[in-house]
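dumping this here before i forget
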Amino acid sequence: MNGGIHLVCGLDTSGRSALLGQYVNAPMHISKPWWDGGLLIVNAINSTAGLFSGDRIESTIEIGAGAQMLLTSASASRAHRMPAGMAAVRQSIRVAKDGWLEMLPAIFIPHAGSDYFQEASVQLEPGARFLWFETFTPGRVASGEAWQFTRFESRFQLASDSRPIARETYSITPDSPSVHAVRNQFPAACHATCYAAGADFPDDLLAAISALHHAECWVGCTRLDAPAIAIRAVAADNIRLTRALTKIRHLIYTAYDRPVPPLRRS
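structure:
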């Protein structure tokens, strides 16, 4: 199945962030947007059981000058068994001057035998602020199905003012030496990546994030060659990972001098 989302968030005639353009094609679906102050909050989901062999999802997100949006999802994303072929998800994101975008999808769960590829390209104009979270679990751990997927491949590129500041490419297969090293420490290891850009993040922030590291959740943080930081976390399970990411998100919002928005309508 070929589907996708095209969202254009800009300022309406009253100066409030709104979806000025949208195109949604099955299996994707978006909820009715709502506001937290001046921030537009949109939930996007795959309306089917998940991704199957041959599925292709293309997403384009555009944030206009001064507009603000949080794009999240209400439930985990899944890739199902694929006897042949693969599923692919591609995202193209652009945030204009003084725009704000947070990407906060729910955790990704690759089922046994799934073959999945994802690619994201992010372009930020000067003054844009951007926050990206991505989380991954090694399978349906509660059912005893961990590290039985075929492949999880990811490509990510972040550029600010047309200058690349982060480029990440990796392919995870359950039998690779790097995965074995993690599995020896955490048999059901859950993984998260975060990028935050557009603010002069103080050293105290990086220290506070790094201080979240402990025996059951490893956390690392580094400054990029721009007003941006990268964070990586690996935890023994999703509960510990979620706790760490909640704290990280609150710390980053404090550095942005913004209130932390709710993820569900009150």
